[in-house]
């Protein structure tokens, strides 16, 4: 019998996760899913917990959903722990996004100043979770979805010493799901290779005969084809730039390659209808109204409005691949081990891997061009400074992280954004 513990169980994404487990029940016979949350998320936890149980009750399988505010009780003897929590809920994300935008800097849940503050709030909690796991479920796998996913996964593996951790993101899943059709192919006919960091990876693609089709796919990248998560504005990429690299960037690269357009669009949206976080708060409220319906026993379509749609494809497939020693290709955050030679061997990267009972084995990518390499090393340094600042609570190191982040305007304005965010998030930043 497999026990799953999900931290942040009150998330509106939980029905996705349940749907993924239901679909895979025959290969992954779980018996209990413990949904853990905190006092502030209690109401959400109860609503989504009841829906989750109704979803199982509509199947022939006997699976129990248990909701709790007691993390230790949930972690006890768990086989897989999934993390999908947001310290401070969407209200904290609103501040992460609003404050930088008021200073005409990008505010985004994983990029720029907001993403770094999400890491500052999350890392101390993650540390406690790993400490509990050492005591209560020392053999469990930790499947992390909490953003900034790559940074959090690096903190868990490198700093808290929990090697059985894999970081996830739906961006590669969505790319492989939707991109092949633009060149009249199925994903099964193509060979995908990804490498980089979470929300900062590139990929290249080959057909069945080993002929590279990356260039053909680049020509379609500015079309709306569903290959990019719903939360990212499709500012145009320069095709000359992409052809010169001969790589397909991920959607989040738009913040770096088309920074001005992305910032202007964010400010425009913000002035019109509020930040993405404020809009998602409304979507969340209407989702929970739907979840309350006692006759509902499937995942509602409306959840697809969230950028994280299809993340359970990654989560449940990854768990099943470990449990069943599948050896399948998945794109996850894991330890580099030389797969990207221009980054340290113990750095966490997001890369094409084979997933088996041993966990993730990265597929070597090889040398990066000067352009990709330089950008990648800066982003990794930014991630490392962010983690150090989160662990030490050191203002100077936080300023280092801000200063090296390409999306933050250096100098006095950066300091103002840092100071304001430190004040509004004080409650969740015991280390500072
Ligand atoms: P949310 O605001 O609904 O938060 C999820 C739950 O976490 C809430 O019910 C909240 O009460 C709970 N929580 C807060 N602090 C907690 C703690 N200390 N312990 C346990 N639970 C706690 O968030 P959401 O919008 O559903 O997103 C969930 C998480 O998933 C976020 O971190 C988000 O960034 C991440 N996410 C990741 C991806 C990806 O591609 N990796 C995609 C979408 C969302
Ligand atoms: C994307 C990403 C997530 C991101 C999320 C935001 O697809 O992969 O990491 O944070 O969706 O979605 P939202 O709907 O909350 O803005
Ligand atoms: Mn993601």
Q: What does this 3D model show about the protein?
A:
- With 432 residues, this protein is α/β, with parallel strands linked by helices.
- The protein has 16 helices and twelve strands.
- It has helices at residues 14-23, 42-57, 71-75, 89-102, 112-136, 149-159, 171-178, 214-219, 239-245, 254-257, 259-273, 276-292, 311-323, 370-392, 395-404, 412-424; strands at 2-7, 30-36, 64-68, 80-83, 141-144, 165-167, 191-197, 200-206, 248-249, 328-335, 348-356, 359-362.
- The strands form two sheets. The chain has a six-stranded parallel β-sheet, sandwiched between helices. Strands 7, 8, 9, 10, 11 and 12 form a six-stranded antiparallel β-sheet that branches.
- The relative contact order is 0.14.
- The mean pLDDT is 97.
- Manganese (II) ion (MN) binds at residues 149, 169-171, 199.
Give the amount of beta strand, in percent.
15-25%
Spatial separation of the terminal alpha carbons: 42 Å
Computed over alpha carbons, the radius of gyration is: 21 Å
Spans with pLDDT under 50 lasting ≥5 residues?
none
User: SS-based structural class?
Assistant: alpha/beta
Put simply, the count of helices is 16
Query: What's the rounded overall pLDDT mean?
Result: 97
DSSP summary, beta strand count: 12
Name every ligand kind in the structure: nicotinamide-adenine-dinucleotide, 6-O-phosphono-alpha-D-glucopyranose, manganese (II) ion
Order of helices and strands: EHEHEHEHHEHEHEEHHEHHHHEEEHHH
Tell the overall outline.
Answer: globular
In the sheet with the most strands, the strands line up as 3-2-1-4-5-6
